[in-house]
Amino acid sequence: MGAERLHQDRRHRITLFRGAGDGGRAMVGFEHGRDRAMRGFEPPVCPRFAQRLGIDALVVQTARRDWFVSDRSPALAEALERATRGYDEVVATGFSMGGYAALLYSAACHARRVMAVSPQYSIDPEVAPYDPGRHP
Description:
Elements: E1 3-8, E2 12-17, E3 25-30, H1 48-53, E4 56-62, H2 73-84, E5 89-95, H3 97-104, E6 113-117
Parallel strand pairs: 3-4, 3-5, 5-6
Antiparallel strand pairs: 1-2, 2-4
């Protein structure tokens, strides 16, 4: 599966891995937080289950530990809307910070279902005091 860059700005990147199937189904996977010092993008990797199922995989990454919330969020939502417009079925997935993003951008990526594993469901300082980087 070759990687095709669909969107990138200083905060977010979307990479498409086309599956061997008919192109009607896709998963949109949101990167989880790596560590407090996230600086830049890691190389994107196609999820093995997408390869096994032959479905398209859109890998959404963030350059910072910003919960996918920044001044670039509207641009990311627009790019996801465009990238997923032609699919019959889209599932959004994410773990932790990525689970929060899967819920946050589910409408933008036309998701019928969301699989959020251990999602960070709030960035409010009263709910998540352990993440002071988001408090301001």
